[in-house]
Amino acid sequence: MITQIKGLHHVTSMAADAQENNAFFTRLLGLRRVKKTVNFDAPDVYHLYYGDETGSAGTIMTYFPFPHIVKGRPGSGEVSETAFSVPEGSLGYWRDRLTLAGVGGLEEVEQFGEKRLRFLGPDGDGFALVETSGDPRAPYARGPVPAETGIHGFRGVTMRLRDGAATAELLKFMGYEEVAREGTMTRLAIRDGNGADLVDLEVLPDAAPARQGAGSVHHVAFAVEDRAAQLAVRKALVDAGAHVTPVIDRDYFWAIYFRTPGGVLFEIATNEPGFARDEDVAHLGEALKIPAQHAHLRERIEQLLVPITD
Ligand code: ZN
């Protein structure tokens, strides 16, 4: 069994509008934009990263805003909801804040004994805020949301699947344990994780397959400390029959990817080297960073990208 995974690292989704996306995560949710760079495979598209002060693993929501991309259709075989951890007693603040901003899909539910405020992102992305007691992760304090109500980081993700058995088995191999069941949901958790410890499986045998587009999660990444841990995880996955990519340098972490039996794309990402690799923590996310292999295209990229106003 794999023991090196420490929870989620990041969640990467697609959006239709970079400006709107940036405003939603920084001005409304109060996260910090910790990196403004471009898609490695399509350098005329932004890659935006939002998280805590330094972009700690387990706090990072990332987006590819593809202008004019059509909205995704929710369904099976995808991450259907990404949940953020907020302090106990803060959901009233959030309900008022999101209502005032005209955010869609607001719904308060109780799941696994936790209060959960569901809401939709700008492209219909499924999100929730979950009150968590004793989450030691410091919310970003210099944004518009006071630290006492701010987002600690991810709590976990929900995957909607037609059949959860193979994915549950894979997650157990990755170090997760089943901790609860409720209705169509099975909750798995990692022990001694980074706080972003939960994966909920919602099994709906009759759900139509999702169609990816704006508002869809592209992949979910799990955290390992360093490259040695990543190689050990890679070997274990390959030995178990998974088709895993070679290690890819993503500038701020190293990544490997594999498609899971339920259809969701998983990544394993390293905590090293982190977002302070190429700019000071005080100025994270301010300048447009272009990966070295595309550096010669900077002038053209800057002309193509619509500037983001903070
Ligand atoms: Zn990723």
CATH homologous superfamily - what is it? 2,3-Dihydroxybiphenyl 1,2-Dioxygenase, domain 1
Percentage of β-strand residues: 35-45%
Domain module tally: 1
Q: Please count the helical segments.
A: 5
Write up what this structure looks like.
This protein has 310 residues and is an alpha/beta fold. It has a single domain, classed as 2,3-Dihydroxybiphenyl 1,2-Dioxygenase, domain 1, CATH 3.10.180. The protein has helices spanning 18-28, 91-100, 165-173, 227-239, 298-304; strands at residues 8-15, 32-38, 46-51, 60-65, 78-87, 107-111, 114-120, 126-132, 153-161, 176-182, 185-190, 198-203, 217-224, 248-249, 253-259, 265-273, 288-289. It has a nine-stranded mixed β-sheet with strand order 14-15-16-13-1-4-3-2-17. β3 (46-51) and β4 (60-65) form a beta hairpin. The longest helix has 13 residues, at 227-239. The N and C termini lie far apart (45 Å). Zinc ion binds at residues 10, 12, 219, 221, 255, 267.
Write the layout of secondary structure elements.
Blueprint (H helix, E strand, L loop, with lengths): L7 E8 L2 H11 L3 E7 L7 E6 L8 E6 L12 E10 L3 H10 L6 E5 L2 E7 L5 E7 L20 E9 L3 H9 L2 E7 L2 E6 L7 E6 L13 E8 L2 H13 L8 E2 L3 E7 L5 E9 L14 E2 L8 H7 L6
Parallel strand pairs: 1-4, 2-17, 5-8, 9-12, 13-16
Antiparallel strand pairs: 1-13, 2-3, 3-4, 5-9, 6-7, 7-8, 10-11, 11-12, 14-15, 15-16
Bound molecules: zinc ion.
Keywords, separated by commas or semicolons:
alpha/beta; binds zinc ion; eight-stranded mixed sheet; nine-stranded mixed sheet; 36% strand; 2,3-Dihydroxybiphenyl 1,2-Dioxygenase, domain 1; 310 residues; 16% helix
